[in-house]
Every structure is written in C-alpha cells, then in structure tokens.
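Dear colleagues,

As part of the handover before I leave the project, I'm documenting each prediction I ran so the next person doesn't have to rerun anything. This entry is a single chain, and its sequence is reproduced below.
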Amino acid sequence: MAKEKKSSEKEEGKKNKKKLIVTIVLLVVFIPALVTQVLWFLGPGRITQKNAIKDYFKAVGKEDVELLKDVSYPKKWQKHYKPNGQEMDLDSVIESSFMYQSGASFSKLKIVSDEDLSGETAKAFQRGIEDIYGVELDVSAVSRVTFRMHMELPSGESQDTGDMVRYLYKVSGKWYFLSDTLLQVHLDLD
C-alpha cells in the first residue's frame, strides 16, 4: 500500500510538472503575441477607412497634432520626416497647417463612394514617399474616397460639406488619411 501511494504521488508530481511546463510554454508564446497585437491595435493608423477619416477631421477640429500624426503617418514616416533630405519637425509642420483651419467641428460622416486604386497607384505612393522622404513603406492599398460631413463653424452656423474627395492608403494592415501636401503634389492628386 505504501508503494502504491508513493507511485501515485510520483505520477501526480510528474503530471503537475508537465502542466507547469505546458503553462510556462503557453505564457512564453502567447503573452508576447498578445502584447504585439495590443500595441498594433493601439498604434498609428486606423482599422477602417471611416475611422481614419473621422479621426483626421477630429484632429483638425481640435488642432490635435498627435492625433493627426497617428492618423496620417505610419511610425517609420513620423520618425524619418525629412522632405527632400531636409531636417524638419513634423509637429511644427502640422501646427503651421492648423493656422489655415477654420476651427470647425465635423460630424455625421457618410461615405458616398470608395474607389480601390491599388496596384500601380500603391506602387506610385511607395515611390513618392521614398523619393520625397527617403522612407520605404509597404503600401498595400490606396483608395479614393468620396464622402460628406456636417460641419459646425465656431460662430454656431452649420452646413453640410458637400462631396469631398480624399485619398487613404494602407500600410501594415491599417488605413491612413493622406494629408501630406508634398506627396499629393508629387503624385498630382486632385
């Protein structure tokens, strides 16, 4: 009976050891994967085109430099913002662009059309970013989006914007609102 009890305790100990090893392996594998996914989700860019457009106009209305950077520029481009090799501060460039804004707030976004321009256009975006900024990005998709919004001016007046056409591009599975005027001019976009 003592032998059976000892044998049973040894087997139980082996099972517990195996469970512990399996648990440790799972934690070592899944925790970094989970952290990576959370950081990807919270990083720059947006999961949907609609959110990229909404957040861009939210940034403009609130003059929020950080939000505008996150919705318009992937991290790599933010870190290497050197148009034509010139050292420039992206925050200052964005802040100066706010001088031309009306202080309006935007709501009720309605996407009228979404034209997929991937393929050659995505390659042209990549080349344009590399030509102007020296940054290599893998642009996987480009869309020409027509949308309408409701705009409220600081005076309290409000109106619909009518159709607006803007470009969005996708890098690493996330959408970005193309707000960079140098790239727009380089690519001859309307």
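Strands lie at 105-116, 139-152, 158-160, 164-171, 174-177. Residues 2-42 form the longest helix (41 residues).

All the best with the project,
I.
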